[in-house]
Design a protein that fits this description.
Chain lengths: 174, 95
């Protein structure tokens, strides 16, 4: 089902059971992933388009999410001004061992550009010095003290999140 | 051999994108470094945008061969095979 909460920058496509029955979609071979497994194995195919184009694609992907062939999808509600890009981004998530079967679905729906990114790469980009965090900070014209607070907060957030590598990964609030 | 290169630079101002999709004919054993040079000839500023001062791949862009990020493979020395598909995107995407 498509979950469109106006308070979030992202629109999500997740299984009905995830929203209403506590189903944890970050899993492989029937088991939820630990923090370590998440960083090693979880990732996404990236797609780009205007919001309307991604909305259309999301509707086509929804049945595959409900059937659990695709774990989850998210896309930008609007372009991120701080990043200066002219299109929205869609992420189609899965375990690395499932990525070719997920790609086959995307390809059947007309997706051509093939770019796979592990979640660990994204986490690195949001840590101090990472390209996303630094671009976001400069895009908001923060003064040095504000910027340092944001960097420290990001570092602490990710350290706490992944501190216990054997704990089940619980997700990042977005 | 022939490969296809697609630039999905999403409006980043560093490159004057004149040809977003290209079919390139390369010799056997061609690397991603050669692909970058060939793309640069058709799209001014490309090489400067994707390669840093030390001659490594820039952190600003990500290059993929058949979906795999070359930064985590062979980097600039990554070799191409016939019919490979190369995609280039701003590294900032996918957060």
């Amino acid at each position: 089902m498509i979950v469109d909460r106006p308070g979030s920058h992202f629109v999500f496509v997740v299984a009905f059971d995830h929203v209403y029955r506590g189903y944890h979609y970050i899993r492989h071979d029937g088991k939820p992933l630990t923090n370590k497994e998440y960083l090693e194995c979880w990732g996404k195919w990236l797609m780009f388009g205007q919001r309307e184009e991604l909305e259309e694609l999301a509707k086509k992907l929804d049945p595959f999410v409900e059937s659990r062939e695709i774990p989850a999808v998210k896309y930008d509600r609007k372009r991120i001004d701080e990043f200066g890009l002219d299109r929205c981004v869609m992420c189609v998530y899965c375990h690395v061992q499932a990525r070719e079967s997920v790609w086959a679905i995307l390809s059947s729906l007309g997706v051509r550009d093939k770019a796979w990114m592990f979640e660990r790469e994204t986490v690195e980009k949001w840590l101090p010095g990472g390209i996303n965090l630094e671009k976001w900070i400069s895009g908001r014209s923060m003064d040095p003290q504000q910027a340092e607070r944001v960097r420290k907060s990001a570092e602490e957030k990710f350290r706490e999140l992944f501190e216990n590598e054997n704990a089940i990964f619980t997700g990042i609030v977005q | 051999m022939e490969i296809v290169v697609t630039l999905n630079l999403l409006g980043t101002p560093l490159v004057d994108v004149r040809e977003g999709v290209m079919t390139l004919t390369l010799g056997d054993g061609a690397s991603i470094a050669e692909v970058i040079d060939r793309v640069d000839r058709r799209n001014p500023g490309f090489r400067q945008a994707v390669v840093d001062e030390q001659g490594r791949l820039s952190r600003q862009f990500a290059l993929f061969i058949n979906g795999n990020n070359v930064e985590y493979g062979g980097g600039m020395a990554s070799l191409l095979q016939p019919n490979d598909v190369v995609n280039v995107i701003p590294a900032i995407t996918g957060g």
